[in-house]
From TrEMBL:
GO terms for biological process: proteolysis. The keyword Signal applies. It holds the Pfam family Peptidase_S10. One of its GO terms (molecular function) is serine-type carboxypeptidase activity. This is Carboxypeptidase. Keywords: Carboxypeptidase, Hydrolase, Protease, Signal. InterPro entries: AB_hydrolase_fold, Peptidase_S10. The keyword Hydrolase applies. Residues 1-24 form the signal peptide.
């Protein structure tokens, strides 16, 4: 995200509680310093874990278009242990399993999908109440009011065709490490993938689901995470994933809001063009295709070479301004690199647009500022309601009542994240899952990948995912990889029609009716 001093995240944090304070015990005369520290760590672990309730199991019925579907919901935790045998973390999850009067071997083979959000530092409440779960959170008549959200039955719940396990990585939701020192071993690309693959393996073995097709679903960094978890499951647990569904994913860090790189800018431009068309109610795939051709031809060439001048400059800047709605003089000032100015310039005078959906504009809180100071209207607006809504849902309908706050997104996790052996946003540019995707396609002949994006997502633009898919070896990609696009932005499924279209497509994907 190209905003002042704010990390790339998928959701905003509620009040966070990463780990409880250490509760030291009084040292006896024979205690050595190492023993005292060990006692402190153990006391801290006992303290934080006592705030997490016991697992709960409840019975429900999904009112689906195809008829009533009884299911069992489990809200609980999976324990992770260190080499010393002590519990190092508890990972919170919510599982939904469709049931019938008798549990048959064929029912055991029903697909099961493990889902997580991104951040890093985001809990699963967003996908849970926004897309796949049996309940959906609605934000008022216009879909953007989080002051009085309403939780309703979700007729498009994925439970109709797959069992679901929604997982909160350590430091998010109600998942906690034993103490702050232990948390360090979870806050990184490899560590995170290994801990989640362990949690998935534990769930599979405890619930006898080895013979089920196993899918991974991840949004934003969660898409990146899904590829890493699939590799870890294969390499450390001997579990092979059937398919991955990535929503608005980070695939290549070098393409993420890298506004001074010609290729990154070219991959982002069609999303900005889609936003302008959508804002003007002029969107058609044909008009967008024209912007896509320009982006990867004259625009990319124009940015890569010396600054244009004369009539060539006039023509070039006119075209970029026409596609994006950014004033021509601003386009000229940036030499056509508009990634740092579109938020302040695309919405019109006194407006600001969100990188999560560049078609969504609100009044700018700081119109006198020359740079974007505004809170993000989607990230820091109505989507905050997912956290409190999930707490109420878990307490009132799942019977899971915790005295610990629920971390919708933990910004401390994001700040401390280890990308490639180092921490901080700069190292994120080296992050990549292209090789993981290639390896999975190569060694698992039945493996499939579906990537879904909203057209007007300027944060993780669909052009970057298309570029990665287009550069896969044809022998791997043909008939096994798909890019699907929908109206809306990063969280395109908050739009009812896009959610409905996506649900129809994804059901076909699970049932073998593969996308065009």
């Amino acid at each position: 995200m190209r905003r002042s001093a704010k990390p790339f995240i998928t959701l905003l944090a509620l009040i966070t509680l990463v780990a409880g304070p250490a509760w030291p015990q009084q040292a006896g005369p024979a205690d050595r310093p190492g023993q005292r520290q060990d006692q402190t760590d153990r006391a801290s672990a006992r303290g934080i874990f006592t705030l997490i309730p016991a697992d709960t199991t409840t019975q429900h019925v999904l009112k689906a278009p195809s008829g009533d579907l009884p299911y069992t919901a489990t809200a609980g935790t999976l324990d992770l242990f260190g080499q010393d045998g002590d519990r190092s973390a508890k990972i919170f999850y919510t599982a939904y399993v469709a049931k019938s009067p008798t549990y048959s071997p064929s029912e055991r083979a029903r697909p099961i999908t493990f889902a997580f959000n991104g951040g890093p530092g985001a809990a699963s409440a967003y996908l849970h109440l926004g897309l796949v779960g049996p309940k959906i959170l609605e934000f008022g008549e216009n879909g953007n009011d989080g002051t009085m959200p309403v939780l309703k039955d979700n007729p498009e719940s994925w439970l109709a065709f797959t069992d679901l396990v929604l997982i909160d990585p350590v430091g998010t939701g109600w998942s906690r490490a034993a103490n702050d020192d232990a948390a360090k071993s979870f806050y990184g690309v490899r560590q995170d993938a290994d801990s989640l693959s362990t949690a998935i393996a534990l769930y599979v073995q405890k619930n006898n689901r080895l013979d089920a097709h196993k899918y991974l679903l991840g949004e934003s960094y969660g898409g990146f995470r899904a590829a890493k978890v699939a590799a870890s499951l294969k390499n450390t647990q001997g579990i092979l994933i059937s398919s991955i569904i990535m929503l608005s994913p980070l695939v290549e860090g070098k393409f993420l809001a890298n506004s001074d790189d010609p290729l990154s800018a070219a991959l982002q431009l069609p999303s900005l063009a889609a936003a302008k068309l959508e804002h003007e109610n002029q969107f058609t795939p044909e008009k967008l295709a024209d912007a896509e051709r320009f982006a990867m031809s004259d625009y990319l060439v124009g940015l890569s070479g010396a600054a244009p001048f004369g009539q060539a400059a006039e023509t070039f800047y006119d075209r970029v301004a026409g596609l994006t709605g950014i004033p021509k003089n601003i386009v000229a000032q940036t030499r056509g690199f508009v990634g740092d100015v579109y938020a302040k310039q695309m919405g019109g005078r006194g407006k600001i647009v969100s990188p999560y959906d560049a078609a969504y504009a609100v009044p700018d809180a700081y119109p006198e500022a020359t740079y974007n100071r505004n809170d993000d209207p989607i990230l820091e607006g109505y989507t905050r309601a997912y956290g409190a809504a999930f707490v109420a849902y878990a307490r009132n309908e799942l019977g899971f009542a915790s005295d610990m706050t629920y971390n919708l997104l933990n910004e401390d996790v994001n700040r401390r994240w280890e990308w490639n052996g180092s921490r901080g946003g700069d190292s994120r540019s080296l992050a990549s899952v292209s090789t993981d995707i290639r390896d999975l396609l190569s060694v698992i002949p039945s493996f499939k990948l579906l990537i879904a994006h909203g057209y007007s997502d300027a944060l993780t633009p669909y052009g970057a995912s298309r570029y990665v898919i287009d550069h896969l070896p044809a022998e791997l990609a043909a008939g096994r990889t798909w890019l699907k696009l929908y109206g809306g932005g990063h969280m395109f499924y908050t739009k009812p029609q896009s959610r409905l279209s996506f649900a129809k497509d994804i059901r076909g994907f699970y049932e073998g009716n593969l996308p065009n």
